[in-house]
Amino acid sequence: MKKPKEHGNINARQIPNCKDVESGANVDAVQIAIGDLGRWQIIVCLAVSLVKFPVAWHQLAIVFMAPHQNYNCTNPITIDFKDQCSVNHNGTLIKCTEWEYDRKTFPETIISQWNLVCDRTHFANIQQSILMFGVLLGNIIFGSLADRYGRKMPLMVSVVLQLLSGIACAAVPWFHVLLLMKLLSALATGGTMVTSYVICMEIVGTQWRAAITILYQIPFSLGHMSLAGLAYWFRHWQQLQIAITLPSIILLSYWWIIPESPRWLLAMGKQKAACKILQKAANINKVKNVDISEIVRKHYLHQNLKKSTLDHKASFLDLFRTPNMRVKSLSIFFNWMVCGMGLFGMSQYIGEVGGDIFINFAMSGAIQIPGNFVAWWAMNKLGRRITLICSNSIAGAACLFLLIVAKDMAWLRLLLACSSIVGMSVSFTTVYLFSGELFPTVIRNIGVGTSSMFARVGSILAPFVVSLNYIEAWLPPIIFGIMPLAGAALCLLLPETAGCILPETLQDGEEFGKKKLKQNHEDLQAEAIF
C-alpha cells in the first residue's frame, strides 16, 4: 500500500531528535485526551489573544501622548521666538518659565501639561524607559509566579492591575505619580503577555503551535493599527489613556472562560484537577472513547517523574544549570533582544520619512501582518530554526543595503526599511514559538518571561541606536544590520522543535537537542577524515 504524501506541516518523524509518540517513550496526555485542536482550544486561544490589543496600546501610546510638539517662550514676554528656552533681556539671558504650544494636532499632551521642554525634556524619555522597564519586570515577576502557582491566577491579577493603574494614569495630577502608575501599568502588561501565550501553547497539539502563535500575534498588529484610529479620535492624552484602558474590563471574563493549564497541573502532580479540566475539554471537543484517568496514569508511568523533580521549585537559575540548557537559553535570549531592538528601532527609523503621523503609524503596523502569515507558512514548511535564520538574515541584509543606497533614492530606502520590518516581524513571531518549545514545562514561563525581558532590553536600546543618526548617518543601519546576522548565526546552536513533544522536566530540557548536536559533530569529523 502506497504511503500517502505528506503536505505542509512538519511532523515528528521528519525532525531528528523528536520523541516518537508511538514508541511509548513519551505520552502527551493533553494531546491524547482532547485532540490537537478542537472547539475548546479555539475558544480559549481566541479569548486569550485579545490581551494583545491592550498590550500594543499601552506599549505604543507614548507616540501620541508625548509627540514632537512645537512651542515658544511666552514668559518672560518676548517678540523674538528664536530661542525657546531663554530670552536675552538687556544683555542677560533669562530662563523661560512659561511656553505656548502648537495645539493644532493634539490639544493636550503629557509634554504640554507638565512643560517637559528645555531642561525638562529628559523626563519624556524617562517615562518611555520606565514603561519598557516595567514590562521587563512584569515578564520576570509574573513569569515566575505562573510557573509556581499556575497560569490563570497571575493572568487575572495582571488584568486587574492593568485596568486600575491605567485609569489612575489618566486621573493623577502630578507627573511623578504618573510615572509610578505607568510603571505599574507596564508591569501588568508584561504579566499578561507572558502568561497568556504560554496558556495557548500548552493546550494545542504540536502541529497547531505555529498557527496558534500567528493567531496570538495578529491582534498585536491590529492593536498597533487601531491605536492610530483611537489617537485620531481622542486627541487629548487623558482621553486616549481612558480609551486604551477601559476595554480591559472585557478581560475580567477570563475568570470564567480561561482554565488553568492542564499541562502545568500534570507537571506539578495535580492529577485530579488536570483530569477535571481535560474531561470538560474532551466533552466540548466531542472526543469519545477516551479514559482520561487512564491516560493521565500512563503519562506518569512513561514520564517516570521522580519525587524530587515534582518537589523542585523552578527558578531562574535552572535556565543555566546544565550545559545544553545554558547554550540554548543564551542563544534564544540574544535573538529576542535582536527582535526587540530591530522591530521597535526600525519602526521608529521609518518614521523619519515624514508625512502624517497617524497614517505612518498605521502603516507601520499594517506591514507586520503579512510578516505573520509568512512566518506561519515558513515555520510549518521549513521549521522554526531555518525560518528564524532566514528572517534575521533578510532583516540584517536590508539594513546593511541602506548604507550603499543614496539618500535621494527615497523610495528604495523606504522599501529596504519596510523589508527589514517585515523580516523582524517574522523573527518575532518565530522566536515566540521557538522559545516556548525549547523550555521544559516546569520552567517554561520563566524561560519565556526572561526571553521577553531581553526583548524589552532591545526595545529600550532601540531609540538610542536611532539617535546615533545625528552623530553618524551610517551607525543605525550598521547596528540594525549586524545584530540580526549575529542572531542568525547563534540559531545554528539550537535544535529544531517543529513536531516535537514539549519537554516536561528539567532533564527533558537538558537532553533535548543533545543527540542532534552530537550527530552533527560526528558528521563534521567524518567529513574531515575523508
Question: What report would you give on this structure?
Answer:
This protein is mainly α. It is 66% helix and 3% strand. It has 24 helices and four strands. It has helices at residues 29-34, 39-49, 52-60, 62-65, 110-114, 122-149, 152-171, 175-203, 209-233, 237-245, 254-257, 262-267, 271-284, 292-303, 307-311, 323-350, 357-366, 368-381, 384-401, 410-438, 444-467, 475-490, 506-511, 514-529; strands spanning 71-75, 86-89, 92-95, 98-101. The strands form two sheets. A two-stranded antiparallel ribbon has the order 1-4. It has a two-stranded antiparallel sheet with strand order 2-3. Helix 9 (209-233) crosses helix 20 (410-438).
Radius of gyration: 25 Å
> What is the tally of beta strands?
4
Q: Tell me roughly what share of residues is in helical segments.
A: 55-70%
Summarize the helix and strand pattern as letters. Answer: HHHHEEEEHHHHHHHHHHHHHHHHHHHH
Which regions have little confidence, pLDDT < 50, spanning 5+ residues? 1-17, 19-26, 305-311, 519-530
Strand portion:
under 5%
| Helix count from the secondary structure assignment | 24
Global structural class = mainly alpha
Described by strand count, sense and barrel closure, the largest sheet is:
2 strands, antiparallel
Task: Report the end-to-end length measured between terminal Cα atoms.
Answer: 40 Å
Mean pLDDT: 79
Query: What is the overall silhouette?
Result: globular
Report strand order across the widest sheet.
1-4
